[in-house]
UniProtKB/TrEMBL annotation, chain A:
It is a multi-pass membrane protein. It comes from Rhizobium leguminosarum. InterPro entries: MetI-like (IPR000515), MetI-like_sf (IPR035906). The keyword Membrane applies. This is Putative spermidine/putrescine transport system permease protein.
Automatic annotation (TrEMBL), chain B:
It is found in: Cell membrane. The keyword Transport applies. Its main location: membrane. This is ABC transporter permease. It comes from Rhizobium acidisoli. The keyword Transmembrane helix applies.
Amino acid sequence: MTIRLLKFLFGAATVIFLLAPLLAILPIAFTSSSFLAYPIPSFSDRWFAELATEDAWRRSIVNSLLIGAGTTLLSTVLGILAALALRRRVVFAAALRTIFLLPMVVPAVVLGVGLQILFAGLGFPNTFAAVIVAHTVVAVPFVLVSITASLEGIDYRTERAAASLGASPAKVFWKVTLPLAMPGVLSGAVLAFATSLDEVVLTLFVAGPNQLTLARQMFSSIRENISPAIVAAAFLFIVGTIFLGGLLAVVHRRAARSAAPA
Amino acid sequence: MNAFRRHTGTFALVFPLTLFLGVFFIWPLLTVLQQAVSDPVVSKNLPRTTAAVSAWNITSEPSDEMRTALVDDLKSLDDDQKLGEVVRRLNSAQPGFRTLMRKTVAAVRDSTGPISLAEIDARWNDVAFWRAIAEATEPYTDRNLLAAVDLQHDASGAIVAMPAGESANQAILLRTFAVAAVVTLATCLIGLPYAMLAAALSGWRRQLLLAAVLLPLWTSLLVRTAAWYILLQDKGLINSLLVSLGLLDSPLPLLFNRTGVVIAMTHVLLPFMVLPIYSVLIAIPRNLMPAAASLGASPIRAFLHILLPLALRGIASGGLLVFMAALGYYITPALIGGPKDQMISSVIAFYATGSANWGMAGALGMVLLAVTIVLYGVYGRLSMKTTGA
């Protein structure tokens, strides 16, 4: 009996440890006071209004969306091509895969220093292109893993059948392979967008004042003048996460339903 | 024909990402390594001296060509910023260069005719100063790499420890490893029983435990760090709760210290420990523990002899993953920690953006990169065995 109680208490305590920080701060986004503390005197949307009206916040949100879109597009295209290649028998497949996944583990600060020097040398430091490229480097592994997994689920015979009926390789790709791999492509794209949205360290090194992202703006506001506007931004992040997560769940459920034998 | 076309097709598909990562991932990392070992300041700004010194045997009297070359170089070097870099570099190798160079440059710039260095300052007859110049003209150096672990060359060229108090890199490296180890241990102590619990439960209870791990993983790292920043403050939720419950008289200091860093990093990295252990545990046949019990093993004995050895691979994977990630952490210590909790990443960022000391940033980055890649190699072998089994 005591063991069951202990198990329950441990499980509950850990769940609280994991979830409480996220749940505890959210109400502060709606505080009317300028302090990040409880009790909340009264509720107001002033901090959301500040995000929408104050120049630094508004621009950082727009920048984040632009950079996120660029990163998603670039990393998804690169990811699809590489995943298609790795599916065939390639020489050095294992080595290539290792290199493609390496950006996930290399410390961001080291990569950031290198990219800063490189972009300065190539002549495009502090540009949107630089930030998108930097984000794509760290987003590509996630895209690749996701698309590779969905390609593995495709039966070769479907594609061979299409080819034997006279479809060109390009047509097989557009009409058969890509639609079947779509769930993986979409989750890869979502992961790439999320990675870009959350990326701070590389942005710190390669972005100029005109490319400050929402994450970067949150980072410097926590350091300088912590205000409930940060929690309002965090609230947007969490709502966005739940939205993207829900989107993925829908995509996968649909894929599962269409894959199930009728 | 088909095989050839297939090969070129595959190459065309794999080429874009290979090129992209080659240029924007491998190249920058190599640049960092190159920064760590290159030392171009003197050879670039004093080209004639560099050429003249290369013929010198380091022990004999400095030759006249060397003296003339140095005077010529100093005459043509009219960029004060570059001159400052040269002086800083030389002074770090041989104290006294700052005053000597100031005096010499002033004399060289004032005079119009031929100049004798020895007349400007007797130190130009001292071989030690010329030896410092000779060493500084080498385009590659192990100085930064040695300095990254608080070592240096002494006058005879042997590798010795830096004087105490001059550099703190060893202390910062040790601190980084210590924080990463504590966080790994903490995530293991929480993560192992949690994963066991989740694997033993079923239905909605298991789903709840897994969702509690996945939800933070999905949430932005920055949001989670900001959340801890708010919770750990003196007037934050945790301290207010403890004070209002009467457990404390004054708030516990939780922010801007090691405790806060460890708590927040444990929270951030816990999912990386739970998930690998969980995925190993659910593959273990469920009747093993009852079988052990029926043979008379106490629960503790059954755990130690059955479950723990089988779960070890998951624990090792999770531990490596957490340790590797913790080593390179920047954001959480930067926001939650105080000046004494900064880890190696913060120091690298400081050298790179704060003081433009690319050599030191590169050397410390190289140390961090090497450790991470070794750990990744171990992790790769481990996970390959797991999937192969």
